[in-house]
Amino acid sequence: MRWLRLAWRQTQRDLAAGEIRLMLMALMLAVMAVTAVGMITDRAETGLQQEANRLLGGDAALRADTPIPADVPAQAEALGLRHAQTASFPSMVQTGAAVALADIRAVDARFPLRGEFDVQDGAGAAVRKVQGGPAAGTLWLSADAARKLGVRIGEPVGVGNLQLRYAATLLREPDAALDYFNVAPKVLIAYADLDASGLVQNGSRIQYRMVVAGDAPAVKRFSAGLRAKLSRGQRLESADDARPEIRSALERADRFLSLAALVSLILAAVAIGLAARRHSARHLDASAVMRCLGASQGSIAFLQLGELFFLGLVGSGLGVAFAWLLQWGVGAWLSQAMGVALPAAGWQPALAGFAVGFTVLTAFAVPPVLALRKVPALRVLRRDVPVNEPSAWTVGLLGVGGLAALLWWKAGSATLGAIILGGIAGTTLVLAGVAWLLLRWLKNARQGLHGPWRYGLANLSRHQGMTLTQVSALGLGLMALLLLLFVRTDLLSRWQQTLPADAPNRFVINVQPEQVAGVSAFAKAQGLNAPALFPMVRARLQAVNGKPVSGADYVQAGERAKRLAEREFNLSSTAAFGSDNKLIAGKYWPAGHTGAPELSVEEGFADTLGWKIGDRVRFDVAGTPLEARITSLRQVEWESFKPNFFVVVSPGGIQGFSASYISALHVPEAKQAAMDALVRDFPNLSVIDIDAVLAQVRSTVGQVSRVVESVFYFSLLAGLLVLVAAVQASQDERLQEAGVMRVLGASKRQLRLAQATEFGALGLLAGTVAALAASTIAGLITVQVFDLPWRFETSLLLYGIIGGTLLALAAGLWATRKVTQAPPNETLRTL
Amino acid sequence: MNTAIRVTKLGKRVRLPESELRILEDVSFALARGETAAIVGASGSGKSTLLSLMAGLDIPSEGGVEILGTALNALDEDGRAKLRGASVGFVFQNFQLLPALTALENVMLPLELSGHADPEAAARGILGKVGLADRLQHYPRQLSGGEQQRVAIARAFVVDPAVLFADEPTGNLDTDTGRAIADLLFDLNATRGTTLVLVTHDERLAARCQRQLRLSAGRLLS
After folding, report:
1. Residue B16 included in any domain
2. A828 contacts on B by Cβ (under 8 Å)
3. What is the ipTM of this complex?
4. Cβ density class A416-449: b for 16+ within 10 Å, e for less
5. CB contact residues (below 8 A), chain A span 429-458, against chain B
6. Domain count within chain B
7. What residues of A are in contact with residue B86 (Cβ under 8 Å)?
8. What is the DSSP letter of A241?
9. Peptide linkage before A112 cis (omega within 30 of 0)
10. Which of A384, A542, A640, B88 sees the fewest Cβ atoms within 10 Å?
11. What is the pTM of this model?
């Protein structure tokens, strides 16, 4: 206890004297970076999970194209789960005056099990949140459906054989976001009315769903039991399947953010190691005196470790506190960007923050500080008595070991951890290698300089190891930022510039066969390019080369193949392909082809399902088989924004099936009003604004990269801390040399000039190295990922050099500000 | 008398938490140009303090120092540095060479700081004189103690100073090397007419100077 008190007093004293402030700052930064990222992704994950459950209307759902077998609800009940059923299908609904095609959904009184419906009992009435669908004998209409039918609350609507009373307007369904293209008017009826409506007939395209909710382990057991014996046409959905686009964006952001946090962590750890060495060197005399006064090695070790413990508590505590503030701000924004309410941050990331803080301290600060216990008492009399320094191997191994453990834990797998550590180490080595070459050049260049300039540059060459550490650390931080800046600005705008000026910006869907001529004539009348209209039929895979197939046959080929084999997808037909399709195998059907139907399949799609030229594939189109041979494989340029299909049938192949058409139009800014007129003339059409989608993509990429960027600022800050720690490690030498220079007649200005030369050159090196590395990686991304021609990014070089120089100058001059302030005699005497 | 250094009623006190320590008290003397003087005395008698005050490295509590007619009290830190750069040379017991610079660069440094037109030629010349013509590109760590002190002496003399201060210049060297270094100092003093002030414990070295200023408990013994 007495030693703990002493340790606390020493911590306070060292903090007040500024001795360990740098260590504290580095520790705080490391903990803050890791914790903030942990908190933000934790919140986003939990928020998404809750949102996903709401979107499902429960915790898991069984989707089927035949009624749910009676034993399934019984299984759910046996496990103590609540359950509810729905059935959806398109059908006509009517009033005395109007008829409209609507999406009908029958829900039972328990649906949804998670989330609720928003309904309104009349125009201007308050919005009610309700669980359970409409009562038997009534229905709810979406505002769109009510408008199309021209019906008012209380009036009857014909649904099949029934006349149901319009009881409320449906404003929002909990699971509406699941089906983006679901654009037809909505009608909600009671499940109990389904049979009586007479709409359920053989061959009706009804989708049945049963959702369950309850304890997570019970849901898991239920899902596992069901998954094992899913029959054809049945699919189990869990919350993980919901919002795939957000989930994958989140996973990618999580990986980026964690990487950024890890770079900060590693750099901060280096700064802590450097600062700990200096701290230990400055405590040599005090420890020797304590040994003289009878302190045992154990007591000194306890005192030093105690100080590190308190430092760890204060540093990690502050880091976690700042991280909490940061995630609080980012969380509000993220919640808005994702359209998901985010729950509060959990306590695990905070605990993890403390764990990271103490691991870094143990790996990087304990070895040099612990060496103090071996200080010989004789040092009190003779300062030249050698001090037992910890071996470089011990320090290195402990440091790398500690980092590897942290990476393993953060990455979730040893392999991924090793890849990240290897990647960062490799990048750092390359940076250090380039820096070493530049440093050699600088060494020769200093011959041409004189006085303070020469002395400043000479300082860089003298502490070569330290200089390389500083350049690599600052360079790594700068490189990450430059790269992000490039991706966020240059690359996105260059990619957009590659889109042709007349690329379609509106998709028109749901065009009925009899409307095709009308829509074409309308476009022509409005002065728009004649639109190409593609027919679409919904088809389900039935057999390949005569052998019936189901999802189970594609389990080996992966989740995507399995899903493609199970779900319905669109088949189209065309006489000839546009320039956005490139033939890569087989040959297209000739013009005027009238023979047996042939198939052209997109290369990736064929690859996933293991199809090749010559295979015979049979589809089920609304109960009728369609069989054809694959005669060509195509590569599709999806970025052209023109309608394209995985599977295209030769002309006449889908004749006789009920098809709807899709078209893409380029509508110039000045002709936006034409689209409104189109929808007025053809009310059943839906127009999707691609410009808006693109703008959304742009803004999402921008927003996500800004969050990642903000975390990379931590890396830059950590890089600067390494620079300052290295300067402080050589502070005693610097003080002595400044004293000598003063004795030789150097003015303050000349001393500052020497320092400015040193740090300016250091920043120049770091900036150049960072910019070269960032340009190379940017080039690789441009060519490999975006398929754009390589171009040297001079702006990156400029930003890197100016940014690096200014930052290093500011940090270095700040760190050495005391060197010029003391009178020379005092400077010489304190050594 | 053509005075190089005038010390008048010089005193230095250091404030301790509960008392005041007088390191130097009422010291006065003058040295003519070209004169050689040794400051001697027991440890703690104030020798090094006197030297620092004379070189303007520290500020006196009372009294003053004039170098070549310029009162150091009237100058600020940069002013004193400028005076040192132009007229004062310094040799330390532990050499104080800058480890990042070669022997040649170390010697060139004071010339460069004062804006000399051709520092390299001057530095090469004097390094040749002290016998280090073949050691120009060596760094301090590559030189022996005696060689390092020769570089330090070359650095002190290269600006052709009117006054040279040497703090235990042979203190870290063996007897033979120490004698060779002392010879070098006195030779240069003789050929260049520099006023030489050295602090030493070595009575034989002190005896080679024209004057011995003996300090005891901060006071100059007559």
Report:
1. no
2. 57, 96
3. 0.80
4. ebeebbeebeebbebbbebbbebbeebeeebeee
5. 450-452, 454-455, 458
6. 1
7. 745
8. G
9. yes
10. A384
11. 0.65
CA distance A546 to A227: 27
Query: What pLDDT is attached to residue B124?
Result: 93
pLDDT of B103 reads 92
Strand order in the sheet with B3-15: B20-32, B3-15, B62-67, B70-71
The pLDDT of A752-774, averaged and rounded, is 88
CB proximity list for A759: less than 8 A, separation 6 or greater:
A808, A809, A811, A812, A813
Tokens 């899913």 sit at which residue? A230
Residue A830, pLDDT above cutoff 80:
no
CA–CA distance, A87 with A210 (Å, rounded to integer) = 9
Task: For an interface test with B, give the residue of A743, A752, A830 to mutate (most B CBs within 10 A).
Answer: A743
The length of chain B in residues reads: 222
Surface-to-core class of residue A116, CB atoms within 10 Å of its CB (0-12 exposed, 13-18 middle, 19+ buried): middle
Range of the domain at B39: 34-59+75-221
In a domain, B22, yes or no: no
Q: Which helix (H) or strand (E) holds A41?
A: helix A21-56
pLDDT of residue A684: 66
SS3 assignment for A720-751: HHHHHHHHHHCHHHHHHHHHHHHHCCCCHHHH
Q: Rounded distance, CA A664 to CA A693, Å? A: 14
Q: Which is higher by pLDDT, B108 or A683?
A: B108
Sequence length of chain A is 831
Residue of A450, A744, A751, A819 to mutate when probing chain B, most B C-beta within 10 A: A744
Q: Considering only alpha carbons, which residue of chain A is nearest residue B98?
A: A737
Distance CA A168, CA A434 (A): 71
Closest among B35, B43, B10 to B197, alpha carbons compared: B35
Q: Is the dihedral of CA A630, A635, A639, A642 positive or negative?
A: negative
Q: Among residues A725, A734, A662, which one has the least CA distance to residue A510?
A: A662
Distance from CA of A735 to the nearest CA of B (A): 12
Question: Which pLDDT value is given to residue A407?
Answer: 72
**C-beta of residue B20 within 8 angstroms of C-beta of residue B3:** no
Residue B171 lies in a domain: yes
A242-263 mean pLDDT: 65
- Beta-strand pair A60-64/A82-94: unpaired
Q: Tokens 């009294």 belong to which residue?
A: B63
How close does chain B come to A367, measured CA to CA in Å?
Answer: 29
Give burial (CB, 10 Å; 0-12/13-18/19+) of A346: middle
In angstroms, what is the C-alpha Rg of chain B?
A: 17
CATH classification at residue B38: 3.40.50.300
A775-829 per-position pLDDT tens digit: 888 777 777 766 677 777 788 888 888 988 998 899 888 888 887 776 677 655 5
Average pLDDT, stretch A220-239? 81
- Nearest by CB: B96 against A740, A746, A750: A740
The residue among A48 and B126 whose pLDDT is bigger is B126
Among candidate residues A469, A455, A441, A448, the one with its CA nearest the CA of residue A757: A455
pLDDT higher than threshold 60 for residue A182: no
Question: What phi and psi, each to the nearest 5 degrees, are found at residue A428?
Answer: -60, -40
A183 Cα distance to chain centroid = 29
- A562 or A630, which is more confident: A630
Q: Is residue B149 domain-resident?
A: yes
* CA gyration radius, chain A: 35
Closest by Cα among A342, A329, A175 to A250: A342
A383 touches chain B (CB under 8 A): no
